[in-house]
Amino acid sequence: MTTGHVNIEPALTALAAALHGEGPAVELSAAADGQPAVRLVEAPGFEDAAVVVRTSGSTGTPKATVLTVEALAASSVGTALALKGEGQWLLALPVEYVAGVQVLVRSLFAGTRPWAMDLSAGFTPEAFTAGALELTDKVRFTSLVPTQLQRLLDSPSADTLAALRRFNGILLGGAPASPELLAAARDAGVRVVTTYGAAETCGGCVYDGVPLDGVVVKLAEDGRILLGGDTLAAGYLDAPGPASEAFFVQDGVRWYRSNDLGSLNAEGNLTVLGRADDVIITGGVKVSAAQVQAELEKFDGVLAAFVAGVPSAEWGQAVAAYVAVAEPGEGSGAAPRGISRAGLAADWRRALGVLAPKTVATAAELMMLPNGKPDRLAMIAQLHALHQGK
User: Fold this and answer.
1) Into how many domains does the chain fold?
2) What is the pLDDT of residue 244?
3) Looking at residue 194, which CATH number applies to its domain?
4) What digits encode the pLDDT tens for the residues 14-63?
């Protein structure tokens, strides 16, 4: 069976030239018809620049990140070692983001032929299943975000589950994966590897808490995760000022300062605890947005939640929540009939006290960026407008 896919030959040709030092750096984006658009980028001042990729923009203006041949090669080698082999990849993510372009880069280093899904009409279990069946190598990989994996596991089709089980490894990143999702994948016999990283580290550089070969991790005094080593980006194009502060050199090692908090165990394995800016000070009380989110998602009928602080004349900041709510009969934790925003807020006030959101927006799903990350800025703007500064 064949499926809709995109012609990635021009993208692969341009990337191959850049990786061999025979052409300028490449920036990929998706055209209206879903085909990858190739832009050749001159990167003066950056030696061996191969790829320019934009940061997700989930917390501000996207920055053009310069990835070198050496960093991409180190990332590909580290990934192959972590996955115990090279193989054929299914591209199921937008090529304009680092996780998507890395599928093509890893394929070029491995000498394998990737298959690219047509995402112009969105991601569906049916299209993924059909794309997976096009892979011919015995060793198969793909990269997904948690929302995609959840849709695949929720699909009633036995063919979709069989397709997931065919992959030797599924890299899962872009956003935190809940313990329930990871448990469901394990129970289904799906081999998932959680990844942590950023565009500034050639994408995921910590797999299942373990840094890739050539990657070093440590914590700053404020608990922020610092990433260094062979996969680090060269810097940003045309980004003077504060953007340059993301990179620094200490004791001869160049580091990238993330905006995430973490912890390291005795073996050096990393646990990501949440964003450094997710603390909401409301009425003089410090509240963790991640903690409130986790509590909200325990309630029946709540599929997912996003929590943030919004300006408040009374509280300084008020806890606000954008919540994806199940329709009656939908999912394992279906919402009761007649569920309302007011009803949810009342339940949370009784159960959570000061942690309860003072403003709640409900929808069928969270607002998402094309790369599968929550669109934090859009949801915060909506919550701000709803709260009206009270």
Assistant:
1) 2
2) 59
3) 3.40.50.12780
4) 999 999 999 899 999 987 677 889 999 999 889 899 999 988 665 557 78
* Contact criterion met (CB below 8 Å) for 354 and 327: no
Q: Are residues 239 and 327 in the same domain?
A: no
Return the beta strands (E) in 208-301 as ranges.
Answer: 210-211, 215-219, 224-229, 235-236, 247-250, 253-264, 270-275, 279-282, 285-288
Return the percentage of the chain with pLDDT > 70, whole number. Answer: 92
211 and 111 fall within a common domain: yes
Is residue 92 located within the same domain as residue 225? yes
pLDDT-based confidence at 265, cuts 50/70/90? very high
Q: Which domain does 304 fall in, by range?
A: 278-387
Q: Look at residue 241 and tell me whether its pLDDT is greater than 60.
A: no
Amino acid at 372: G
Dihedral sign computed on CA atoms, order 363, 364, 369, 375: positive
What Rg value do the Cα atoms of the chain yield, rounded? Answer: 21
In a domain, 138, yes or no: yes
Tell me the CA distances in angstroms from 92 to 16, 31, 101, 195, 333, one per residue in order. Answer: 20, 16, 11, 16, 28
Alpha-carbon distance 258 to 296, whole Å?
A: 26
Within-domain flag for 147: yes
Q: Are residues 204 and 78 in the same domain?
A: yes
Asked whether the beta carbons of 163 and 132 are under 8 A apart, the reply is yes
Closest by CA to 296, choosing from 355, 373, 380, is 355
Q: Could you tell me the CATH number of the domain that includes residue 349?
A: 3.30.300.30
Asked if 120 and 126 count as a contact pair (C-beta separation under 8 A), the reply is no
